[in-house]
Design brief:
It is built from 17 helices and twelve strands. The chain has 485 residues and is of the alpha+beta class. Among the domains are: 8-174, no CATH class; 178-331. The strands form four sheets. Strands 2, 6, 7, 8, 9 and 10 form a six-stranded antiparallel sheet that branches. The mean pLDDT is 95.
Length: 485
């Protein structure tokens, strides 16, 4: 099957983008092809020509290539014009089952929004995005995905010279909070309303029938975002750059530049080279989620008020209730991580005390939850041995076992198995990612291929993969990630 394009953003929103033409790579070479995703999209037969397609050398029939306009708050400071500076949206592919996905080439050359950028993508960041987005999909987290990566045959200058690459990103859409901010700042309510109508029709159709569709749309986006951020916290994911231009209206994880997974637990964990003050630290992500939604609310305020003058007040009330909604979603996920099947009043305190006990104890976040499950059948030492001060966790374990005793009756082996279904064993551990990327840049894709296989099978323990579940060795350098531009 070839692409089945129906390009509604291009067709329905003239003036919301700039035409763009991919710059053909000098020597495209297919490095990665995502067979499973291609099958999902009904595009398995495109592999033979994938190098030309992903590199931009061959424009598929039905494509209407564009670069989308958007603004964004970057580390709290408003940038009035950003836009797709190194990404070109080919169009919207309709799958055999009727689902709609954007097909975007990232690194395909300069656009009207490139400013001083070269429009290119380096191999290291492209491979990181492919690896982590596929790991997130395997973890069941809403995410954009990568159909494939192509070597461009060029060198790009970042911290050093790197091979150039182009990545084909698949998303429910690329409409961002920053997209709404752009049109609110530059053109006003008519364009914001037009964009909101498009986003409602594409993502939140039920909102169209609400008394105030734009208020209902805002609430739907808020719920999608808080669910997404809670899912990040459950697995120890740090996005690293939660600017409003990196917040997708669809509720998908988007942009995998300075992202990483927490190894030694700390609510203050930061891996981005440019997050000097911890704005986007691991534990601060839920707070930033609310801040970003406030910016969306500001962009929507006029169109909400046009339907109902009390609508802005209602939107503010939704924001005021964000924390309560977030905690409910987060706590429900933590219950399953702790093997609990029923809700009780003291569960929030139990969860909070576990996270407090981990702080400053050198505890590996991912392995803690697997060891909690293991401790149900092998004894508490599987957990206490992870702590510098065992008293930090001893009382909590007493309370957890008391809580389990009052929960649904279940054999320890069955409860442990249920916990292991939701608590991953294999994540993209930072030292393994860096090792694999370094080898790939030097031309050896074998370590990367193995790591990709492991992290896309995150729950089932395999003895031959034991090394991938281990923390970084003692003395390993602190992981620092970069945005890739």
């Amino acid at each position: 099957m070839s692409f089945n394009f129906d390009n509604s953003y291009f067709r329905d929103l003239p003036g919301f983008y700039a035409p763009a033409t991919p710059s053909a790579a000098t020597g495209p070479e297919l490095l990665i092809w995502n067979e499973a995703l291609a099958d999902r999209l009904g595009l398995a037969d495109l592999k033979e020509g994938a190098a030309g397609l992903i590199s931009g050398a061959c424009l598929p029939q039905g494509a209407d290539p564009i670069a989308q306009a958007y603004s964004g708050h970057q580390f709290g400071h408003f940038s009035p014009q950003l836009g797709d500076g190194r990404a070109i949206l080919l169009g919207e592919h309709i799958t055999p089952d009727g689902a709609r996905f954007d097909v975007q080439l990232k690194g395909a050359g300069r656009t009207a929004f490139s400013r001083n950028g070269d429009g290119r993508y380096a191999l290291g960041p492209a491979l990181r995005e492919h690896l982590v987005s596929e790991a997130m999909a395997a973890l069941g987290i809403e995410t954009t995905r990568s159909l494939g990566v192509v070597l461009s045959g060029e060198q790009v200058a970042r911290q050093s010279l790197q091979p150039g690459a182009v990545l084909a990103r698949i998303a429910k859409s690329h409409i961002r909070v920053g997209t709404f901010q752009f049109f609110a700042a530059h053109l006003g309510p008519d364009q914001v309303r037009q964009l909101a109508d498009h986003a409602i029709a594409r993502h939140y159709l039920a909102a169209a029938n609400a008394a105030n569709p734009y208020l209902a749309f805002f609430e739907a986006v808020m719920d999608a975002q808080l669910r997404l951020i809670a899912s990040w916290i459950h697995v120890g994911f740090v996005h690293g750059v939660m600017n409003t231009d990196n917040v997708a209206i669809s509720g998908e994880t988007i942009d995998f530049g300075p992202c990483a997974f927490v190894d030694t637990y700390s609510a203050k964990a930061v891996f981005s080279s440019i997050d000097e003050h911890g704005r986007y630290a691991f534990g601060n992500q839920p707070v930033i989620g609310r801040w970003n939604l406030t910016q969306l609310g500001s962009a929507l305020a006029d169109v909400v008020a046009e339907v109902d003058p009390q609508g802005v007040e209602a939107m503010n009330a939704l924001l005021a209730g964000y924390g309560e909604r977030y905690l409910a979603v987060w706590l429900n996920g933590v219950r399953t991580k702790l093997g609990l099947t029923r809700a009780e009043a003291g569960d929030l305190d139990l969860a909070n005390r576990l996270f407090a006990a981990m702080e400053g104890q050198g505890v590996d976040f991912t392995n803690l939850f697997r060891n909690l499950a293991r401790s149900l059948t092998t004894g508490r030492e599987a957990v206490t041995a992870m702590f510098v001060d065992t008293q930090k966790i001893g009382t909590w374990l007493d309370d957890w076992h008391a809580r389990l005793a009052g929960d649904e009756a279940m054999l320890p082996e069955a409860r442990a198995a249920a916990m292991n279904v939701v608590n991953p064993l294999y994540i993209p551990r930072n030292h393994k990612v860096e090792e694999a990327l370094a080898a790939a840049i030097d031309g050896d894709m074998a370590p990367y291929g193995k790591l990709l296989e492991v992290v896309t099978n995150p729950y089932l323990e395999r003895p031959e993969w034991a090394d991938y579940a281990m923390p970084a060795p003692a003395g390993a350098p602190r992981c620092v990630t970069f945005c890739g531009t």
